[in-house]
Amino acid sequence: MNPQEAPLAGPAGGPVVRTVLGDVPPGGLGVCDAHDHLFLRSPLLPGQELADPVAAGAELRAFREAGGGAVVQWTPRGMGRRRGELAALARATGVRLVAATGLHQAVHYDPELLGRIRTELAGLFVEDLTTAPVRAGLIKVAGGFHGLDAHARWVMAAAAEAHHATGAPVAVHLELGTGAPAVLDVLCGEGEVPPDRVILGHPGRSADVRAQLSAARSGAYLAFDGPSRAHHPTDWRLFDSLAALAEAGHADRILLGGDTTTAAARAVGGGPGMPYLLSTLRPALAAELGEEFAARVFVGNPARAFAAHWH
User: Fold this and answer.
1) Binding of Zn(2+) 1: at which residues (predicted)?
2) Would the annotation count 140 as a binding residue?
3) In the 3-class helix/strand/coil scheme, how is the chain assigned residue by residue?
4) Which of 85, 158, 226, 250 has its Cα between 20 and 30 A from that of 92?
């Protein structure tokens, strides 16, 4: 058996992270890119699909050489997540990979497809998480700009139901970094998902540090991302946000990822790519906020955020 390919069982009663090759103890992730994409397609990105397994493998090897141990892919259902390829890449590169179920915003899908699955969505999520040949380890959903439409509320209700059936963490796309209060109201209020099972993506795409502090006080995780060509305007304010959160006592709520969404943003495509997190961002983070903080953000926090008591 490949050393990564653990059976779907963890320590008795303890939390585990569900990777594409099986469940592993939380400490088995190592250094983690907490939000990225190896495969992705959308009608909103014509001609920019991430669909090349060879390029994905090269990116993972570069990340591994930089000291990386795990990548969490947030690509949900219907957007070309290619779980079989993820399993093959995990075996070939030695990087642990966590896949997603869930749905993105409605604009990424054929309306007829959404209509066909309307009454069975939670069941599809549960199947992906528990019985699929290559299993997902988190549920990805998406909010809108400063609010939630009917589609988002439907998907989040299904995600909450699937969380209660499985224990899986729920990862959320915040549109331009906004809307966290509405998301938390639906998931944690109406859906009764514990806040520490929720991971809010893209908080740094809004410059509102007060909103970030409020989200951290809720108990949710904040997954900052975007060191790529598409999102570079967020880079200059990243450290201010992280310092404010750390000073307020929320260093244990912070995650970091690359969120590579185009081939040009990959290291193998000329962009910073996944290795940038460790070759450039991590040393700068350690110099600014301390080595203990950097280790917490890249190792300790992901181990807790993506682990679950699966059932």
Assistant:
1) 35, 37, 140, 259
2) yes
3) CCCCCCCCCCCCCCCEEEECCEEECHHHCCCEEEEECCCECCCCCCCCCECCHHHHHHHHHHHHHCCCCEEEECCCCCCCCCHHHHHHHHHHHCCEEECEEECCCHHHCCHHHHHHCCCCHHHHHHHHHHCCCCCCCEEEEECECCECCHHHHHHHHHHHHHHHHHCCCEEEECHHHCCHHHHHHHHHHHCCCCHHHEEEECHHHCCCHHHHHHHHHHCCEEEECCCCCCCHHHHHHHHHHHHHHHHCCCHHHEEECCCCCCHHHCHHHCCCCCCHHHHHHHHHHHHHHCHHHHHHHHHHHHHHHCCECCC
4) 226
